[in-house]
Structures are given as C-alpha cells and as structure tokens.
Write a structure and sequence with these properties.
With about 200 residues, this protein is α+β, with helices and mostly antiparallel strands. Helix content is about 20%, strand content about 45%. It starts with a strand and ends in an 8-residue tail after the last helix.
Length: about 200
Amino acid sequence: MEIEAKLTLTRPVRAEEIEALDWTPYLLGERHEVHQHDTFFDTPELALSRTRHAVRLREGGEQTVVTLKGPGTVAAGVHAREELELPTTSRAPESWPDKVRAELFRLIGDGALQPLLEVQNYRRTWPLVRDGQVIGEVALDEGRILAGSRHEPMHELEIELKGGDRDDLARLSELVQRTLPARPEDRSKFARGLTLLGLDTSTA
C-alpha cells in the first residue's frame, strides 16, 4: 500500500529551504537527486484508466522500474492505493516481469498497451527519520507533464510513508503547509495528464 501526502508548491522552492525547516521530532537524512522520466501506458480503449488502474514505467536512477497502481482513495491531499512495483530491463510491456504481466492480463486480457502520457521530473529526496528509524521520504519534484501536444509545469512536495503511520503523515503535512507556500493536492500527476488529454479524471 502506497500512502503519501501530495502538496502543490505555489512558488519555486529550493532544496535548501526544505533542509532549513525544523522537522522536529523528525530528522532529514542525506539528499539524493535524480532526473526521472515516467511513461504511463494504457490500451487504445483506456481499459486501465477506466477501471482506476495505472501502469507506469520509470526510468532514471539506479534502475528502471514498472509500477502497476490499483484503485485508491484521496482526502485533503493524502493519497492511498495498492501498487505492485518491480525492476525491469525493458521498455516493452511484453518483456516486463511475469507478475506484472499476469496482473495486466487479468485487467485487460490481450489488449495492447501503448504510451499515453509522460512526466519529466527533477526529483530531490530525503529519508525521514524518527528515533533512529526511517519512517518516510520527502520528495521535492519539479518538471512537466506531457500529454499529446499539450504540457504543463508541475512543482510539488510529496511525503510518503515508509514505516510510519498516518499520524506522522498528518503532522508532517501540517508542518510543511505552515512553513512553505504549499497546499494539499488531490490530483495525481497521472490525473493531471488525463486532464490535458481531455479525459475524465474522476476515477484516476
């Protein structure tokens, strides 16, 4: 289960500003930086999107990964959904890991997948530590969403749980909103891309 808070930043925010915040009782670990390129796939009939699923190929960083996301919930910028994520060495869906392909077959049968939209992202991340244990990750994202001939910029902060609980997430989200120009974002990057394509995002 992926649980994270998404916050849109209403002005440019630098990594140094994130590091200058008082995160007490949490600590930020070492910053990591990566240029990511995400490609979301669907069938021509949008079989995945219409059943509230999404499949993403993420390139950049130490390895390429494919992620299958299931239906989720969102409230006040907190997103929760099941996901299956595995490393892959291929951009071709027919060569993705067996477990991912089995789930895709269950959802779309023999339907052919094709690229639907892309996200270009410069991401800076920090592990969040409490009492010596990593409980989450902060990610500062800056880039753009590309869908067909249309695109839009995106600049947001994500706080993802990785061992903590929802109380941690609420406390951290409130801290960020109190100290940075940030507001809760109920739309995922994928949903924003669907909007650019003129498609229904009510189930994204």
